[in-house]
Amino acid sequence: MAQLLPSALLNAIDELGKLPGVGARTAERYASFLLRADIHTSEKLAHAIAELHKGVKNCPVTFALIDVDEDVSSLYSDPDRNKQIVAVVEEPLDIVALERTGQFHGTYHVLGGAISPIDGVGPEQLHIPELLKRLVSDEVEEIIIATNASVEGESTALYLQRHIQDEGINVAMTRLARGIPVGVDLEYADQITLTHALEGRKAF
User: Fold this and answer.
1) Which CATH architecture has domain 7-57?
2) What does the H/E/C string look like for 101-133?
3) Global pTM exceeds 0.85
4) Least CB-packed of 36, 42, 143, 179 within 10 Å?
5) pLDDT tens digits along 44-64
6) Is CATH 3.40.1360.10 what the domain over 71-175 is classified as, yes or no?
7) What is the pLDDT of residues 11-55, one digit of tens each?
8) For residue 99, what is the enclosing H or E element?
9) Which residues of the chain are in CATH 3.40.1360.10 domains?
10) Helices 7-16 and 24-36, axial angle in degrees (round to 10)
11) Whole-angstrom distance, CA of residue 125 vs CA of residue 120
12) In this structure, how many other beta carbons lie within 10 angstroms of the beta carbon of residue 141?
């Protein structure tokens, strides 16, 4: 049977289809768009992708993503940030979500994932030892456990709580409040969200 599309286009569709959340039809649309667009559009995209590994590294203290010419994250080195308060998140992009609120002025610590035995991710794969060192060296007074409201996120939060207590580190531990999102009917809320909404209820 004759090949319906040129090999170069098929290769592009195949590679785009490997991206998270991109199905076959979406990959075809992306590849078709790039083919129709000005060649500079494709070149700029290819250049941006090629520079990803060259221009980005992890902060050795917080494990946030930083430029290669930076020593540490600016969110850590900034003298206006409170090093005694640390928000613990799963992934670097979680920092962006918290920063957009404009309400947090502490520093961050990226775990690099969440405990998930089914995926082969245990505590030893996460940046937990580095967090424990920071709690002591920065004389941290409070850590805000801001892992996701998932089974893995909850397991990670519980492990952190117990591990820090077992290490005898005296620090206040808090958890991000959870509740029902605005515009979501109660019947569509998941069990974890409903549980946290009940636990975190306030006087009306």
Assistant:
1) Orthogonal Bundle (1.10)
2) CCCCCEEEEECCCCCEHHHCECHHHCCHHHHHH
3) no
4) 36
5) 999 999 999 899 999 999 999
6) yes
7) 999 999 999 999 999 999 999 999 999 999 999 999 999 999 899
8) helix 93-99
9) 71-175
10) 130
11) 9
12) 15
